[in-house]
């Protein structure tokens, strides 16, 4: 079972540490990594932002309790995934469907599809309601800064929008503020990456499709990498109403989807999911995951609500 990176790890304290120990650890690390003591290096700035974020959570009883719950949840998921993987039968080139935890309330199915010596893990995930979902994400998070270049970052591959949304303009943002993308420009006319954001985790074989075809509002979406001590966005893109977008060449690892409803600004996130690449005697197996966004009749997205600081 892989190690879970937590705020406790970042401050180098035990999970049952009292507040005075947490504060003392924070003060010691601040003195060591403060940019003023390190000639303003970018690395010290990065480390200090992590230290500050961790102290903000652990010094607040409510946020700390949420973080402790998140740790327990991740430990349970890791244990489940490890046990599930050990039970899989790869001898026939197929994986038996495994039932997800009922607490997630996700509908999912996995199957192997052979393509020469490559195999695809196909998983369809319909995001559904979870009434006791936390209102914030307890893993440390940092947004990727927007670049100032006018040119859209190029890549060696071609991501594509779903054919049904190439020229779709329905469900455009109603709020004046939400009509403007974070880069200060208008949103794309069709599904695609938002200019100015670096595209990361591009050395894999897997695809992640975000399906917004069930909704009459546009969304701004982020694919978040949750590996490492801090979660951060690796792809940032726009999907119009009734559309979809395919992320290609996604590296293996743990991710979640976070998105803003551009009709009302509401923020939501999916549960975490794993993108896999597995070497076998018959070839390499990789993931092909579809995340379908649904709305309830009252207009609430059936996912976890999150705060602005977690987006």
Describe this structure in words.
By secondary structure, the chain is of the alpha+beta class. It folds into two domains: 7-69, Helix Hairpins (Orthogonal Bundle); 98-146 and 157-310, Immunoglobulin-like (Sandwich), CATH 2.60.40. 21% of the residues lie in helices and 25% in strands. The protein is built from four helices and 14 strands. Strands 1, 2, 3, 5, 8, 12 and 13 form a seven-stranded mixed beta sheet that branches.
Order of secondary-structure elements = HHHHEEEEEEEEEEEEEE
Q: Which blocks of ≥5 consecutive residues have pLDDT under 50?
A: 84-136, 145-173, 297-301
* CATH topology descriptor of the largest domain: Immunoglobulin-like
Q: Give the overall form.
A: globular
The first-level CATH class of the largest domain is given as Mainly Beta
What is the count of helical runs? 4
Mean pLDDT: 71
β-sheet strand percentage? 25-35%
CATH homology superfamily name of the largest domain: Immunoglobulins
Number of strands: 14
Helix content: 10-25%
Largest sheet: 7 strands, mixed
CATH architecture assignment name of the largest domain: Sandwich
Which secondary-structure class do the elements indicate?
A: alpha+beta
Number of domains as seen in the coordinates? 2
